[in-house]
Design a protein that fits this description.
This protein is α+β, with helices and mostly antiparallel strands and 642 residues long. Helices cover 44% and strands 15% of the residues.
Amino acid sequence: AYMGTRAILPLLALLEVGLAFGGLSGDQGWHAVPLFRKPAVSTGQLELVEEGLNVLRAQTEPFAIVSAVGPTRTGKSSILGRAFFRGEHENIFEVGSGVTSHTGGVWIASQPVEVKVADGSTLRVLFIDTEGFSGVGGITSKTYEANLFGLVYLLSSVVIFNTMFPVDASTVASLNAHASHALSMLQALTDSGQLVQKAKPRLVWSIQSFNIYNLHNSGMAATDLLAALRNASRASGAGIAVLGGEAASSSTWLVERLFEQQELVTVRRPHASDEVVANLAKYNSTILSADYLHDADQVRAAAMHDLKAVHRCKEAGTVLTLSECTPQPLVGTDFVAQVSLWLKHGYILDRSDLELDTADEAETLNRLRERNRKWFDEQCATLNEELRTKFYWYREESADNAKLRDEAVAAVDKMMKGFHGAALSRLVESGVFWKFPGKGAMLVEAQADQAMQRCKETLDGTRRHMEGWTASHRATKATPAQELFKKLEAEAPEPSGGLSYKLVAEDSSCFSNAGGAGDIHRLHLGNGMTLEACAEAVSKKCECGRGFEHDKGNDGYCGCGMAGTPNTDCTESDDDFSYGSARYIMFNPACLNQQSEARKRALEQANAAAGGEDGGGALAAAVVKDYDAPKKRRQVCFDVYD
């Protein structure tokens, strides 16, 4: 699942460079310490922390830095731990379990990892974790994120840019925007006489929770995806100003000019369980997916490939290529002095925060109002999803779960009440505040009150919805499969020449987790379908069982349980929750005879696995028998079966 501008690097190559988890050096007391923190006053400028600087100062031999950046809650801390510290220290960087960004500022490992590089020498590597971009409820700004990315770019030998699947042109645009911030910082340093005489770092783009079948279905190889994403972006004026004429080509990917190489690694889902994925810090790597651990190894291989120590080039120039640079490795004290100058002279402002335009007061405030409303809605949507997820995790009836549900409600309520502070902090860093401080503050206060009221209504509705679903789920689980399907058959409409199907459950899907092997007993029939079209497709596809799902809100998604498996009626995972999706049972599919035989086999397998008891997921024997009875054919006005 690893791809880039070079050939696939086999895992055996790790042995050639001498990198192994057992090769960690030092006293094994790894922990993370702060290197940069947010400013106490909201200016967007990071502040150095002595504890992290002391880690750098302690480096008396050549060392490299590998950093992870990217949007919040995408698994940066987790992939660093699982790729480079797997085992006792795999949670060296604390991993969050909610929707807010868990890491604040910039953190560095307390000591380096020693690795053997291609020439046989040993190189020390320090790892850096960063606060996620665009965090919900976070008191940050685009200016803060611009300075964070710019400094990490300057610090690093390798930058791991971590995002979530799916990726599209907007993801590339975001990466290019961050690259433009690095260019702005380089320009600011150049203007102040602080030339950055170093070789370009390398970029490893890690895409988490990647569905590799999407590539297969699109007829694309991995390298095709990287090429398509690269071509989705164009150069900017900033690139021309700093890098010269080579950035002027219309086909230039700005990132390509800032990084020596760009390599893309797809990382599959760590585990089938949402609860495990959301709380990875609680689980060691031994229970995680072998595919995920394999992909984490590929991230490690990509980052360690051709790794260079932090250095200063003898040649004059800004961000040179490796072929243009004669590197002089820096020791820790020299590097700290360099970082201090970068921080002092490289501070930049994001223009979208400044809003330096000539609009009149009414237009400017209207723009602020629209921007704030969009931001408030995004925050509330994320909190709503958090509440829905927690209610699903704690759905079983117990005193502990009731307490956890109450705590989840209190947590999102607390974050919602933080809208005022976060919105005012954003305002302080915008040009509107300095133009119209009084009116801007009054507008934000009023909008925050309105947004909190809207969000409270949304969250209350979600709470009621989930409480109803939880009660219905308990009742359904308490009903034996035989009774459930007999009841459904008794309520089935009389055949009228069309398809006959009935709603079984809302907020439910045909998801299959076959012994932890993944969603292998569900067939995906497509998107953009109405319920009627979905039922027709299920009826005609003989590989489908009687159970199917339709999700109108998810682009009309249609899927079915696979005939001949315990999921033939979409009940293999009886504890499934899929918001907005509806699960149905079909009584007269066109492939009825073939499906009946498949259901009989599924029932026999399920009963054998359960020691002869009702497996809870397959049809009861009595129900299958009814459907397998000999069919009498008769003439009415067309052929029907009773």
